[in-house]
C-alpha cells in the first residue's frame, strides 16, 4: 500500500488533472480562464498542478468558465473526498477528545456490519471505562489536547451501546499482543480482559484472536474498521484516514479475510484471554 498522505495527494492530483482537461477541452489558456474567473493566472496554475486545493466556489467558477457547469457537482464531491482522506489528529482533537467520540455516533448507529482489526489496543466498542480512561489520558498527554478525558470516556461508553442495542453485527480480530499490552494498572487490564470474555458471548459478536504462534499470511497492519463494506477508517499515529473507493475497501476486506484464517475463536480464544489474565499476577 502507498502511504495515506501520498494517496490523499494522488486524489488531489486527480481532481487537478480533471480541471486541466476541462480547460483544454474548452480550448482556453490558463490566462483566459483566470480572466473569466476573476483571479490571477498564477492561481489557475497552482490549482492545475495540485499546489493549491480549490474551494467549492473555485470549482464552480472553473466549470462555468469552461462552459461545463454540470461537471461542478461531481468535481466538488471528489475534491471533498480527497480533502477528507487524510485528516491529522491534531486537527480532529484540537478542542479535546470528547467531541471526536461524539462525532462518530451517527456512523456507528447506522452501520449494520462492522469489520474491525486492532493490532495495538482493545477496540473502542469493547473498552471498559477504566481501560478507556488510561488510554485516552495517555493520548491527551502525548498530543497536549485540552483535558476532557472524563467526558470523552463517557462519550465512548455511550457510543458503545451499539454492541448491545439495535441490529448490528461485529466481526472483530485482535492480535494476541493486544491482550498483553499493559494499558493502565493490572486491575484495569484484568477487568478489561474479563469484559472481553463476556462480550464474546453476545450473539452479535464474532471475536477472533491471532496468536503469537500463528503462521502469518498477512503481516500485522495498522488498526482499521470497515463500515458496511463501504468505507474504511484507518488509524495511524499522525492521522485518521478514510477510504471509500471500492478497490481500497476490497483491499482491507481481503486483508481481514487472510488474517481471519489464522485467528483463534471460541474456546481457543477464551483460553488466550484467560492466559493473559493469569499472566497479570
TrEMBL record:
InterPro entries to which the protein is assigned, alphabetical: Cro/C1-type_HTH, DUF5753, Lambda_DNA-bd_dom_sf
Span of domain HTH cro/C1-type: 18-73
Gene3D superfamilies per UniProt: lambda repressor-like DNA-binding domains
Domain of life of the native organism: Bacteria
Pfam family, one: DUF5753
Protein name: Helix-turn-helix transcriptional regulator
Amino acid at each position: 500500500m502507498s502511504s495515506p498522505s501520498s494517496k490523499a495527494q494522488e486524489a488531489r492530483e486527480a481532481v487537478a488533472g480533471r480541471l486541466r482537461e476541462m480547460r483544454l477541452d474548452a480550448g482556453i489558456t490558463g490566462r483566459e480562464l483566470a480572466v473569466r474567473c476573476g483571479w490571477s493566472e498564477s492561481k489557475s496554475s497552482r490549482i492545475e498542478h495540485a499546489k493549491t486545493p480549490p474551494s467549492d466556489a473555485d470549482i464552480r467558477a472553473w466549470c462555468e468558465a469552461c462552459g461545463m457547469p454540470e461537471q461542478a457537482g461531481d468535481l466538488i464531491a471528489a475534491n471533498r473526498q480527497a480533502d477528507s482522506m487524510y485528516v491529522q489528529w491534531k486537527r480532529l482533537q484540537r478542542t479535546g477528545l470528547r467531541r471526536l467520540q461524539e462525532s462518530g455516533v451517527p456512523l456507528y448507529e447506522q452501520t449494520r456490519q462492522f469489520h474491525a482489526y486492532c493490532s495495538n489496543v482493545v477496540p473502542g466498542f469493547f473498552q471498559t471505562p477504566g481501560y478507556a480512561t488510561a488510554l485516552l489520558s495517555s493520548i491527551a498527554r502525548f498530543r497536549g489536547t485540552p483535558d476532557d478525558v472524563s467526558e470523552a470516556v463517557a462519550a465512548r461508553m455511550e457510543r458503545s451501546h451499539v454492541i448491545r442495542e439495535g441490529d448490528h453485527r461485529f466481526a472483530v480480530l485482535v492480535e494476541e499482543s493486544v491482550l498483553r499490552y499493559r494499558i493502565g494498572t493490572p486491575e484495569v487490564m484484568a477487568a478489561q480482559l474479563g469484559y472481553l470474555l463476556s462480550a464474546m458471548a453476545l450473539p452479535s459478536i464474532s471475536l477472533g484472536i491471532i496468536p503469537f504462534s500463528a503462521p502469518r499470511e498477512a503481516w500485522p497492519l495498522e488498526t482499521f474498521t470497515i463500515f458496511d463494506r463501504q468505507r474504511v477508517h484507518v488509524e495511524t499515529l499522525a492521522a485518521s484516514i478514510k477510504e471509500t473507493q471500492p478497490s481500497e475497501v476490497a483491499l482491507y476486506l481481503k486483508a481481514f479475510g487472510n488474517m481471519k484464517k489464522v485467528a483463534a475463536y471460541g474456546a481457543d480464544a477464551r483460553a488466550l484471554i484467560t492466559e493473559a489474565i493469569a499472566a497479570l499476577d
